[in-house]
Amino acid sequence: MSRYRPPQQAGSKYITAEGERTLKAELHQLWKVERPVVTQSVSAAAAMGDRSENADYIYGKKRLREIDRRVRYLRKRLEDFTVVSEPPDNRNKIYFGATVRLEDDDDQQVIYRLVGPDEIDPQRGYISIDAPLGRALLGKEIHSEIEIESPTGRKCFCVLAIEY
């Protein structure tokens, strides 16, 4: 069994202004608040002597690696993003950042917002433009019919409203 993992497909490089603020706040929290505290606790644990059986030292070093990994990821992603803060000229079609109200075959209405892959939040109805439904919605107009293949089977939706 090998440890090889195929590289992940890069997500879209678009982000909303709100999403950029959230990621910058997370980066600040990790780098300026959490990391100094963890570094201090690791230093104090290292000063106690034997590090091989020192749980504070071992778990502190592990947490430092997690923080550093996330900080590297956030810095790289924030450099590459294209922030979309203005709505498109044609507001009759679905583009990045749109909030869309859909109706399915069972006459159930759902509301989704198309965001970048770093902003997805199913609780708030934020779906990625890279998701199957997100890709199917891009460029559609009001009253368009959309069919997607989901894990539970084929689903059909009708676009009822588009807002930016």
Topology:
Layout: E1 14-16, H1 17-46, H2 55-80, E2 82-84, E3 99-104, E4 109-115, E5 126-128, H3 132-137, E6 145-150, E7 153-163
Parallel strand pairs: 1-2, 4-5
Antiparallel strand pairs: 3-4, 3-7, 6-7
Helix pairs in contact: 1-2
What does this structure look like?
Helix content is 38%, strand content 24%. With 164 residues, it is an alpha/beta fold. Strands 5-4-3-7-6 form a 5-stranded mixed beta sheet. Strands 1-2 form a two-stranded parallel sheet. β3 (99-104) and β4 form a beta hairpin. The longest helix has 30 residues, at 17-46. The chain is elongated. It starts with 13 loop residues before the first strand and ends with a strand.
Q: Which properties best describe this structure?
A:
164 residues; alpha/beta; Helix Hairpins; 2 domains; 5-stranded mixed sheet; 38% helix; 24% strand
Describe the sheet with the most strands. Answer: 5 strands, mixed
**Helix and strand pattern:** EHHEEEEHEE
Strand order of the largest sheet: 5-4-3-7-6
In angstroms, what separates the terminal alpha carbons? 48 Å
Task: Determine the CATH superfamily of the largest domain.
Answer: Transcription elongation factor, GreA/GreB, C-terminal domain
Question: What's a concise summary of this model?
Answer:
This protein is an alpha/beta fold.
